[in-house]
Amino acid sequence: MKEQKPDLQRRSLLKALTISTAAGVAVAASQVTAAPANEGVENATSHQDGYRETAHIRDYYNSLR
To answer: Is the pLDDT of residue 19 over 90?
Structure first.
């Protein structure tokens, strides 16, 4: 029987794809910027653009009890 030699070109390709994917994720993650913090108590208590507890959310919470 013949010995099977490892395909080094294929392994190199797989390593390169893995490394380039990891590098792409790292670059994308480094470009994410944090939102500026809201200043003042008035903005912190305002629920205009954040979490809203609506009727269906309250029904869901009540179903968990």
So the answer is: yes
Q: Which pLDDT score is estimated for 10?
A: 85
Whether residue 44 contacts residue 38, with contact meaning beta carbons closer than 8 Å, is answered with yes
**Mapping DSSP to helix (H, G, I), strand (E, B) and coil, where does residue 61 land?**
helix
What percent of the residues of the chain are helix, what percent strand, and what percent coil, each to the nearest 5?
A: 55, 0, 45
CA separation for the pair 18, 24 (Å, rounded) = 10
In this structure, what token pair is assigned to residue 11? 């392994």
What pLDDT, in 10s, does the model give residues 30-53?
A: 876 666 655 554 544 555 667 888
